[in-house]
Specification:
Length: about 525
């Protein structure tokens, strides 16, 4: 072997060693990548290229508070994307796992995780954009010590996003609305999500992702966001598939921006009440006074005066109508759709002693009591909560997808970790998230429990396999996975994701038929 050959061989071996160290061991700084806003520099860690805290829009502070997100500024210097950016302002009581994270209004940030092969110039990979839950009040796309490396190593790029929360993400006041003629109003959290999707469309190719294959997926408030994004014209063409996990919604009709005599208080009425608590009226001076309110004061008010719902509202523009009416009219985005719930959604109620009347919003509870005649009152309240907010809506929306010629798949997640089955009667709200990411460490971060068993890990690999197949092919089915039939009202089959994975009709069919009748009555009646 010549000296030149030896040198070249040694160089190649050295490069391989460095690549191994960068991708399998300690994180290594990467060369900058070019985006439309300027160069960014991330890390190679655990076989994944990681870019944290990337601004996808301008900071919504000062005069930009309660306005649609504006484009992120162009930078002339390389942006350090090795650390997370601030999370959106929120009460720490609802998101203890974010304790110690920087927080502020300059929070419209996202994080990108791409397989090393894609970032190195290989074929572009599908993108999965995660929308976190938290009742639109809490949470973040930043998961300290629990990032989606496992999922990204399945050959997909994963994007996690922040969006404005609480009354910073959903707010309206008549005087504020009047001061912004021609602008979209109220649904700032949803507008943020759309801005993040536009950023992905324009930039993800630089990170090895395919902008033509973007799947949005989210849980709880994130699941609600998924169906809202399917319904809003502003997001059309920005994604190719959608997965809604435990997306609570109201098929009978969403909250409205303004109006009186509605089933749910309008958002502008809520805004008037908040302004009044700060001595702010409904006059020409109100907008400036509202914009000058300290974030801490807005958070403190929200903790003591919770609004009816923080779900997106019908504003006539971003959300032109109720999500259910848009799906019924066949005006939702025509993309493959997956939707489902856990079998114990009522766990979200905690220990609060809710009464059935509390959940009925003024409607007569007698028909509900008759539909659940086999249950005592306490069990009836829990069942109605789960069925009316989660199971019924997921099934309804999946059943409307044939109107746009796209398939849907419906599931119920009921798997409980092997060491927990003696103490837990079913899967609680959010338990499916760690399985979808294929990383049971995510669940352990939230709940103290014994290490997962081999059976638990196999279940996580199975659930993640369905999700990844869907992102790659628009269909969750694939080699080695039990067949998951698409959902049709005529067959009414979902997939049970439990210790045994099998398709079957949903439980409590009589109650679901009762809900169906209510939905049809509501959708056929003139809208108030």
């Amino acid at each position: 072997m010549s000296n030149l050959t030896k040198i070249r061989t040694a160089a190649r071996l050295s490069g391989l060693v460095l690549l191994f160290l960068a991708t399998a061991c300690a994180a290594a700084t990467m060369a900058p990548l070019a985006t439309q806003n300027g160069d960014v520099q991330g890390l190679m860690q655990d076989g994944v290229a990681v870019f944290r805290g990337l601004p996808y829009a301008a900071s919504p502070e000062g005069d930009l508070r309660w306005r649609p997100p504006q484009p992120a500024p162009r930078r002339n210097t390389t942006f350090d994307a090795t650390v997370f950016g601030p999370v959106c302002p929120q009460s720490q009581r609802g998101s203890t796992y974010l304790t110690g994270m920087p927080m502020g209004e300059d929070c419209l940030r996202l994080n990108v995780y791409t397989p090393a092969a894609a970032i190195a110039g290989g074929a572009r990979v599908p993108v999965m954009l995660w929308i976190h839950g938290g009742s639109f009040r809490w949470g973040a796309g930043s998961w300290p010590d629990n990032e989606p490396f496992v999922l990204a190593n399945q050959g997909v790029a994963v994007v996690t996003i922040n969006y404005r929360l609480g009354r910073l993400g959903l707010f309206a006041h008549p005087a504020l609305s009047a001061s912004m003629p021609g602008e979209p109003l109220a649904n700032y959290a949803l507008m943020d999500q759309i801005a993040a999707l536009r950023w992905v469309r324009d930039n993800i190719a630089a990170f090895g992702g395919d902008p033509a294959r973007v799947t949005i997926f989210g849980q709880s408030a994130g699941g609600v966001s998924v169906t809202a994004l399917m319904a809003t014209p502003e997001a059309r063409g920005l994604f190719s598939g959608a997965i809604a996990q435990s997306g609570a919604s109201r098929i009978e009709g969403d909250r409205q921006l303004r109006g009186t005599g509605l089933p749910i208080e309008s958002l502008e009425s809520d805004g008037l009440r908040m302004a009044k608590s700060f001595g702010i009226g409904n006059d020409a001076d109100a907008p400036a006074k509202l914009l000058a309110l300290p974030v801490a004061d807005i958070l403190a008010y929200s903790e003591k005066e919770m609004p009816n719902s923080m779900n997106p509202v019908v504003d006539g523009r971003v959300m032109p109508n109720d999500v259910s009416r848009i799906f019924r009219a066949g005006r939702q985005q025509a993309v493959p759709f997956m939707s489902g719930t856990v079998d114990r959604e009522e766990s979200l109620m905690g220990r609060y002693p809710f009464k059935l009347e509390d959940l009925m919003r003024g409607d007569d509870p007698a028909p509900v009591r008759a539909a659940y005649a086999d249950l005592d009152e306490a069990a009836r309240v829990k069942a109605w909560f789960a069925d009316s907010l989660f199971r019924g809506p997921a099934r309804f929306l999946a059943g409307e997808m044939p109107r746009v010629g796209q398939p849907a798949w419906l599931y119920e997640f009921s798997y409980v970790g092997e060491t927990l089955r003696r103490t837990e009667s079913g899967a609680a709200h959010s338990d499916d998230v760690a399985f979808a990411f294929g990383d049971l460490g995510l669940r352990a971060r939230w709940r103290s429990e014994a290490p997962p068993t081999d059976a638990d890990r196999r279940m996580a690999a199975t659930v993640m396999g369905y999700w990844v197949n869907f992102a790659k092919h628009g269909n969750p089915n694939g080699p080695g996975l039990p067949n998951w039939p698409s959902y049709l009202r005529s067959t009414d089959q979902l997939l049970e994701l439990g210790p045994t994975i099998s398709p079957h009709k949903p439980g409590r069919e009589a109650v679901l038929r009762f809900l169906d009748r209510g939905y049809e009555a509501a959708l056929s009646a003139p809208k108030k």
